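Why do we bother with a discrete structure alphabet at all? Because it lets us treat a fold like text: something you can write down, compare, and reason about line by line. To make this less abstract, here is a complete entry for Large ribosomal subunit protein uL14. Read it the way you would read a sentence in a foreign language you are learning: slowly, and without expecting to understand everything at once.
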Amino acid sequence: MQAISASIVRSLTHGTYCTCADNSGAKEVMIISVYGYKGRKRKVCSAGIADMVQVVVKKGKPEIRKKVERAVVVRVRKEYRRKNGVRIKFEDNAVVLVDDKGLPKGSEIKGAIAKEVGERWPKVAGIASIIV
């Protein structure tokens, strides 16, 4: 994974429910693991902004429910700091479903996404309406 310009606060842990911000058919997902997480044995994995996570779809269309998918975290409620001193936080925790290469499954993203997501996942930022 590519480094980003903010100091990440890893606030989304295993079992966190997030809203799905794209039009792929999923409404609510639950984080079950984090890709690239290196931690101590039996420690609960955690994710922050622009991390790729493995999720299970809890609410949404019947054909996508109960499926394990990959997703990228685009919004977090926990405040984090950028290098220029600005502190950013959003209203909700949100993810966007992606495939193995990081290409988004939906064709549009509802709401704003963080600038750090665009640095690491340019294809996700390409379909976003607002980048903060």
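What the structure line is telling us, in plain words: The longest helix spans residues 115-120. The chain has a mean pLDDT of 94.
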